[in-house]
Amino acid sequence: MQIGDEVPDFTTPSDLSVGAFSDDGPWVVVPGEMAWRRGIDELRERAAAQVPEMIRPRRLPPLRGAAVALKLSAAMGPWLVRNRRRKDDPAAQAELAAKLRPAFESLGTTFIKLGQLIASAEGMLPAALVTEFKLCRDRVPAESIAHVRTVIEEDLGRTLAELFAEFDPVPIAAASVAQVHVARLHSGEEVVVKVQRPGIDRIVPRDIATLAWLAPIIEKRSPQAAMANLPAYIELFAETIVEELDFRLEAQNMLDIAAVLAATDQHAVIVPRPHPQLVSRRVLVMERMHGYGVDDEAAMSAAGVDPSPVYRALMVSFLEGAMIHGAFHGDLHGGNMMVTEGGRPAILDFGITGRFAPGKRQALLGLMMTAASQDARAMLGYFRDLGGFPPDADMERLADELGIEELMAQNPNDVSPEVMAVQMRETTKRLVAHGAKLPKEMFLFMKGLVYLGGALTSIAPDVDMFGEMAQIYSLFTTGHVGHLEAAGLDVDAMPDGGQVAELMRQQVGTDAGSMTYLQMQQLQSERAAELRAAMKRMG
């Protein structure tokens, strides 16, 4: 059963009860009547079933592995020789990133997609790598109109002229997996048509097999890669990209996220409607939306958009989607969002959608709520339940070894960069010794959180982070009591929003009554620079 299957009421010709869509859509979404949705759960299961073969351990490299290893070695080898003693130096890391990006681009579809995922992982991966891979080119030469016509007609069973009154042969976007054309149906609706490139279903599995072969080799040589759980990251990447190869799954993702937005009453944010009939494995026809980039402050101001509700709607729907409903957009970034001409933000491109199984949702909910209240021991337990530690790991012993309460209560202003560097190294060493790894599901979630925080600098630069987080925290403690109790939390013993705001001030190390995200980011950047300098002095 999919989220979009729930159809509470269709006494009026509206689909807003099942999804956060535009008020005047080109058609009505009735999930149960969409022929392309038949067997959608089985399609998703079949896509997932491909992953184990792609990532299985191999003693010998796949045929593709030699070419990839040669290309990456050519990029990294000279750098390793020159920078053996200064691998953590930001300038050296920037030099390596500048060599890796062209190598990724030359290796094609899968590596370009991986590069884009790296580019959107701000705060999760080295800054130099993220910055460089933001330049990763995913606009590749377009396929011919002959190819586009063939795919559409084979998959949809009618000629291009029968399907569309107008079809622009020049794509508005040509990326590594698909290209996008604008068109008009004979009934007059403007649509966007996404068409898959040839051979993708053969290219991706061989590239994933190569990445899976390389991951443990890299992990053995890098403690940071071990902590980041590189093999699990490749597995997650495989799970997401195989779903991108079937546009029926992407269309279902659109319905699922639209349903989450509706269920969380965040109708300030909308999703384009997939067409009721014109969706197949290689073709996706959807509602066309007109607007401008979400980071276009002047356009948002001219449209009269109040940024605070926009941010709150995005953040609440993202958090509730993951922790309550188990589905969230897994690739949020500026290119996947727009503000419509009516002034409502829209989320686009649903090839990557994050999902948490029910048990993981409860663990995530517990982790986030105890992080806000700074209950350090409980946080470790929930992190273990998410898969961050082996099931039998002794969390009490680890908490004692780390002095976790003291670390959490520490005011950054009271600790020298040298002491903080020692603490960080010791903490990392002990975490790895206890088997700590980043759960694969958490990567997309954390990436989305970091993006939404950063988006504040353009969407709502004046929003007070302390007040905003206190308000969102209070929404959960008052609106999701049953879910909190199911996660093992004592709601009556939890702090209120005001207390959480004060805890945040202590953690940031400020007496300021309010602080914007940009101010917080600048403060953290200054401390990070001091920490890097201290680690360099200490060798």
Characterize the structure shown.
56% of the residues lie in helices and 9% in strands. The chain is built from 24 helices and 11 strands. Strand 5 and strand 6 form a beta hairpin. The longest helix has 22 residues, at 200-221. The termini are far apart.
Quick check: average pLDDT? 85
- Detail the poorly predicted runs: 1-13
Spatial shape: globular
Q: Mind describing the biggest β-sheet?
A: 6 strands, antiparallel
Helix content: 55-70%
Number of H/I helices:
24
Number of strands: 11
Report Rg.
Answer: 24 Å
Helix/strand/pairing category: alpha+beta
Strand content: 5-15%
Q: Quote the distance from N terminus to C terminus.
A: 55 Å
Salient structural properties:
9% strand; 11 strands; 539 residues; globular; six-stranded antiparallel β-sheet; three-stranded antiparallel β-sheet; disordered N terminus; alpha+beta; 56% helix
Helix and strand layout, with pairings?
Blueprint (H helix, E strand, L loop, with lengths): L39 H10 L1 H5 L7 H20 L7 H18 L1 H11 L7 H7 L11 H12 L3 H4 E4 L5 E2 L3 E8 L4 E7 L3 H22 L1 H6 L1 H15 L2 H17 L10 E6 L3 E5 L3 E3 L3 H6 L4 H19 L1 E3 L7 E4 L4 E3 L5 E3 L2 H16 L2 H10 L9 H8 L1 H6 L7 H17 L6 H20 L5 H15 L1 H6 L10 H12 L8 H21 L2
Antiparallel strand pairs: 1-3, 2-3, 3-4, 4-6, 5-6, 7-9, 8-11, 9-10
Helix pairs in contact: 3-4, 3-9, 4-5, 4-6, 5-6, 9-11, 14-15, 14-20, 15-16, 19-24, 21-23
